[in-house]
Amino acid sequence: MKGSVHAAARGYACTNMREKIKEILRAVLKEGGYFEDGAAYGGPLEVFVPEKAEFGHYSTNVAMRIPGGGTPLARAEAIAKAAGAAAPAGFFEKTEAAAPGFVNFWLSPETVRGEFARVAREKRFGRNGSGAGAAAIVEYSSVNIAKPFHLGHLRNTVLGAALANILEANGYRVIRWNYLGDWGTQFGKLIAAYKQWGDRRIVRKNPIEALQKLYVRFHAAAAEDPELEARARDEFRKLESGDRENRKLWEWFKEESLAEFKKTYRALGVDFDAWIGESFFEKELRPLAADLAARGIAERSEGALIVRLDEFNLPPVLIEKSDGASLYLTRDIANLRYRLRKYKPAEILYVVGNEQSLAFAQLFAIAKKLGMDSARLAHVKYGLVLGESGKKISTRRGEAVTAAEAMDKAVALARGVVDEKGRGLTERQKDAAARAVGIGALKYANLKENRLTDIVFDWGKMLDLTGDSAPYLQYTYARFASILRKAPKGAARRVSAGATAATAVVPGSEPELALMRKIFEFPDAVAAAGEMHSTSVVANYLYKLAVASNRFYETTPVLGEEDRARRAARLALVAVAARTLRDGQALLGIESPEKI
Ligand code: ARG
Description:
Layout: H1 2-13, H2 17-31, E1 47-48, E2 58-60, H3 72-86, E3 92-98, E4 102-107, H4 109-121, E5 135-139, H5 151-169, E6 173-177, H6 186-197, H7 200-205, H8 207-224, H9 227-240, H10 244-268, H11 282-294, E7 298-301, E8 304-309, E9 314-320, H12 328-343, E10 347-351, H13 357-369, E11 376-380, E12 385-386, H14 403-421, H15 427-447, E13 455-456, H16 459-462, H17 470-486, H18 491-505, H19 510-520, H20 522-532, H21 535-555, H22 564-587
Parallel strand pairs: 5-6, 5-10, 10-11, 12-13
Antiparallel strand pairs: 1-2, 2-4, 3-4, 7-8, 8-9
This protein binds arginine (ARG).
């Protein structure tokens, strides 16, 4: 199994310029006696793309990490020289050492053009097989029945959906899982409130709002009348024991809520393979608790059942209350056991806010204790979405609170951008473009930041056609799409086949070569994003790709180029850059309209 994973990964490794440079470096380091299975220096070999052009196209810090006599700079000089000699003739334009001990590499124009021609023909460019088809569960969105789909859930949903796409691009078989909050004592309150004040038509018309109001009303009334809490507990107990009326009400709340949530998911272009929520695990909880007690993992403490996690330096976990009621985390244990048995996943990503960190540390510790350790478990945390004031969102200040409100606002603002730019479009085209741009802008604003940071929606920046925004990426793509549309018939097809050969022989200007080199980084971005569970890696890459694309666009004639071979070569570059932009945006769930 392990062998095949590596074989699959190796099959793809050659698609990656960075890997090629690593291969050369490994050979050099081995020759110099530095390299022993990667153990001779601290951590894996790193080759990166420097921010500044003066530090080369690629760079490594390995000379500062390996042991040996002399200064790091002297070692870097030796490695630079040896790498130049070890590479195939003409591969590098130059290799140089730089203080305090970097080795910098410049690819020759021939290498860049040759690699580009190869990349252009690659059908699955950017994807890799490192997941080797293993299952990966990505749990995200996980909204709560009868509660609003707020901006935190929106961030969660677009983040999880993008990570699922990214894992797929890294060769995993992904299961997208919406772990609905559809169980708990709050349903006793809701049922009690509905029985007292509810109106079927009002719930039908506006399910979440109506149910939320009932819930709020319950709390207000319970503050006056403690009797209500007892009634809610009773209703929940009835629900648990299968009372028909309560069961039906609960199912109906769920159905109405889901119908409303699904409108939001549809507008976001997000979907799931499993809609399995907390209630699904209800039946398993008693036997699970009994099993934990029998195995001596859980113990009684003041009538309740707990699992101690002293050896992990974590507080104990309450598995079952003294009245036999189960808990949130117990459902997660049951869920994990179910997932491991049913899907045998290599990885499970829990996309859940920062504030639940302790619960997940406890869950993962219990998993270890129970030997449920066949999958890599990751709590993919993220920060808050703050109001425009930078503080917690306030309805009173008229800020968008729910996902639907934010989406409406983004689409309305995008319509302004489209009205200004897309003069040749029909009304219907404008509507479609505004949806793609608005939703894309909202998604990108969530995905481009480090996920751990709290974010504020800056609507102006979000929709800025010239800034680090989805509309900027989309506009860049549309520019290229327009060139390809106007190209002589058949040119686009020739682009992927023959014309790329022209690229290999026609000398290119610096903006052309820079764009090609930027394109080569796509597979690196996809792989790193998968390993780090980070969408910002892909977003930042796409921004740089768009910048390189526009520099090319503004400096280099394509259709206006007289020389036929040169024109064909540039068309090929436009086609591949457009494809890379589109594929990258698709990973983030962002559409690429042909016209804006
Ligand atoms: N529904 C929960 C909430 O909105 C999040 C669920 C987190 N996932 C989990 N496996 N516990 O807070």
